Amino acid sequence: MDYFPLFIKLQQQACLVIGAGDIAARKIDLLTRSGANITVIALEFSASVRELQAKHALTVLQKPFAASDVNGFKLVISATDNAETNQCVADAANSQGILVNVVDNPALCSFIFPAIIDRSPIVVAISSGGASPVLARLIRARLESTIPYQYGKLAQLAETCRQQVKEAIKQPAHRRIFWEKVLQGNIAELVFAGRQQQAEEQLQLAIDAAAIETPQTGEVYLVGAGPGDPDLLTFRALRLMQQADVVVYDRLVSPAVLDLVRRDATKLYVGKQRDDHTMPQEDINSLLADLAKQGKRVVRLKGGDPFIFGRGGEEIATLMAQGIPFQIVPGITAASGCATYAGIPLTHRDHAQSVTFVTGHLKDGSIELNWRQLAAPNQTIVIYMGLIGLPAICAALIAHGAPKELPIALVEQGTLAQQRVFTGTLQSLPDIIALQTIRPPTLMIIGTVVGLRPQLKWFNDAAPAL
Ligand code: SAH
After folding, report:
1. C-alpha 239 to ligand 1 mean position (Å)
2. Which of these is catalytic: 245, 250, 305, 461?
3. 465 pLDDT band (50/70/90 cuts)?
């Protein structure tokens, strides 16, 4: 973060604007919303600044800028078209540690203006750190259309009862659930419809009811986090991640996905590396149950889809047995994500009429799979957890009648920016891989569909195809 976002209280604070053209007018107009005491110094005053002066109590000084003018101000904006003056303003302010912004000159700024969505008291500020103000404005336009205009009113309503709710519902976790219901349910709708009084009455009833309710058991959400690219999350996954009290995750969940979890949620890492299960599965199962019993909303975040090589069934069985409510959210499994981002269709009318997902995990040094069936033509085989066994897998398929020239791809860190795809044949790939440093996770795709990659490749891999 090049610029740290903060919201500054400027009510009754002395703010200075140098320059009085149209750009200065826009900044002054913004500042007036904050309740600041504004002084403007300029040689000439545009009509728009004069208009603002008439509307708001601006102090206006017609004179050249001198370094001592910044004395006593909390914040200074230089909006002149004179580079020398701008530099003087920046120097004067910086030497006294006063916040300074020079319009269109990031190098001279100690703070920058974000794009603002004003639903006071809700304010959204967006910044590109000066990299692309247009992009920040486009994002603002998008958000403007999704944040109801009346959110400000809703926040005001919440504020009037905040203390009362705090006293009525002692547990912070329960209080949050209460507010989430209020702010997304029919009370919010009443505010949006302009029925303020009805909304206040309903809110009062809800507080009274919540005060006498006994605390409930929490819930567990078993959520598929997809293969890594956060854009591949489902809306439902994101919503639940934003509401969680606790998130229990393992190694396959990418940092970018984890970043989307509610900031204040407790994040528990329970590992899961090959042969290094940081926490035994039984302990994970009981951890989820215990957290829910404490009334927490627990998101169990799993890479890919929880029901594909994800032990989702085992975790749910424990919850079922203990009568704990749960929901399951599917995710994009590694096979779908990796195949798509590698430009390899898993089925194709001319190549493969079926696709099989298998685990290549070694058990006691060998892989038990139905090799005869897997070596048959016109199908695609996707192998999860197969990197260590790759040479053995290729050899076994050849031994059971698959052609040596059958194409195979190894997708490393699929769907992420650092994705790499290695392609070869059953015969050649083990040697190709042996020369590389491979970083897990990796997925193997076997079948003639792999040959379509040169035509269908669209995602920019970190390494050129071999
Ligand atoms: N439930 C998960 C799979 C868990 S098993 C899912 O549906 O995807 C773990 C294996 O998934 C890894 O060993 C690897 O083979 C595969 N995998 C998961 N994410 C991957 C990714 N981004 N790229 C390549 N393989 C991945």
Report:
1. 23
2. 250
3. very low
